Model the fold of this input.
Amino acid sequence: MGLDFTGRVAIVTGAGGGLGREHALALAARGAKVLVNDLGAAVDGSGHSVSAAQQVVDEIRAAGGEAMVNGASVTDFAAVQAMVQQAVDAWGRVDILVNNAGILRDKSFAKMSMQDFRLVVDVHLMGVAYCCKAVWPLMQAQQYGRILMTTSSTGLYGNFGQANYGAAKLAQVGMMQTLGIEGAKYGIHVNALAPTAATRMTEGLMPEGALEQLAPAAVVPAMLVLVHESAPTRTILCAGAGSFEAAHITLTQGIHLGTGAQVPEALAQRLQAVLAPEGQQVPDSGQAQAMHELAKAGSPMH
Done:
């Protein structure tokens, strides 16, 4: 088996069902010890029960694997820290963090309450930040770590009725980019997965025939590749129905117009040249934009 996780310790959040369950089962089947975290809430975040997560743990143990349950909410930093400590106390380390927990509060922005906006951001962004912060010093100390963000096509490309979800999901990508840079010297690789899968969170959004093809298990190969020791870093993989793609945030070649009173009008007239994709690049960091702009301006600082 090429992608082997023997001896690795993984935490998978939101692993009581859907994608998280498949992730946990796959990692365990390939040798990882898995902490199965799930608050056991409804899709909108209400309620609490560890029964679903316990079933996943039981399934892993029945197959001969090692797993334990945790019911922490990712929005509670103290509980997240205790969750990580639970894994360390039992298994001595944490190698892999799969940030999968999530909720939905879908409405058009005109009808969306700021409470629902904030709640989704708290789970999908602050929850991920808390989990990453809790494992970060461990991964730094052991000079190894694999962190996976679960982003979304909604964050990358937008989707009606999901301004809160989309904002949080693209924010995860921004976090991935910076943590990938900061983690490089410690052997910490950080990636993102944009899944298309039929789960509780997609019920009623697609026809039944399409949902059958979008089994959560079809997304798992991308997860395994992105958290394996051979994983790239700062990579966004899209996956669904057995297909795999990559998403890139690019910078076009653009044009240099200089400064002056007529630049706004000149920019408006030549906007298509700025938007033209030919020669676009995937920057190594945010600094690349400044260097690119200075180079076009003929700056001696470049």
